[in-house]
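Weekly structure sync, notes
Attendees: PL (lead), two postdocs, one rotation student
Agenda item 3: pending single-chain targets
PL asked that the sequence for the first pending target be pasted directly into the notes so everyone works from the same version. It is reproduced below exactly as submitted, 296 residues in total.
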Amino acid sequence: MSYLSSQPKILIAGAGIGGLTAALSLHGAGFTDIQIFEASSTLTTLGVGINVQPSAVLILRNLGLLEALEKTGIQTAELNFYNRHGDSILSEKRGKHAGYAVPQFSIHRGEFQMLLLSAVKERLGEQAVHLNHALTGFEQTEKSITAQFSQRRDGAPAELSGITGHILIAADGINSTARRILYPNEGPPRFSGRMLWRGCLERAPYLTGASMVWAGHADQKFIAYPISQRSTDKGKSLVNWIAELRIRGKDDKDLTPPKTDWTKAVDKSVFERPFESWKCGGLEMKDLIDRTDKVF
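Predicted structure, written out during the meeting:
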């Protein structure tokens, strides 16, 4: 970009984990003119648990976020594999326990996003994050790119004036507008035939208090792990769980289910029965499901 006489103006579509981390990484590399545009009108602690592997934690450590992660998430100690009968198959250490320089973290997705958002606002300023801006398209020349956004007003989308910069980073999620424009013939992401239901609840610790449990097989599995250091500090364990089932056969002509809101609670009866007798690692899967207030 030798034609630039000053800092490039960088536009990022999406204030999720990817977009916010990109902004922090660019700022750490010396870029200061960064604007982030998020489709949602508010950012809250949505979602349940995720895992951040050591390769990603290294990046976050270099961004100065390791201490914040330690206060929020669980440093995963081990991953224990079981069959569908609850018999132990294998146990392996994770993160620093396995010799890595940094931990593996199990953490609430929404709290992780808020941690990143706080760092972005502290380093780039509140004005760097624009809510209610959904990417609808872009036009580019040899020297600039203009992104178009829409805004929800009274429940209906309204087009906003274009915003011009030098770089547009598309971090606008699985249903990415930018991806659809750049690759119009690829179609939407393909469904694997498997569905995941997720939830979390606070309960007594199990195993080491920092253990991940993985049970089942390719077409039916159950995964659980603690995700909150604050809960652990109280002598409890905030356990995230995932129930997975194959709901489409490999030969089905149409594998893709209707698009739904991933933040909307669902009926437990849709998936609970196949896990009624499952027990392993000190956990009873039906008990976890039954005691969870909301399942997504």
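Discussion points:
- The helical segments are 17-28, 54-62, 66-72, 109-124, 177-182, 229-233, 285-291.
- The domain at 69-108+190-291 is CATH 3.30.9.30 (D-Amino Acid Oxidase; Chain A, domain 2).
Action: rotation student to compare against the earlier draft before next sync.
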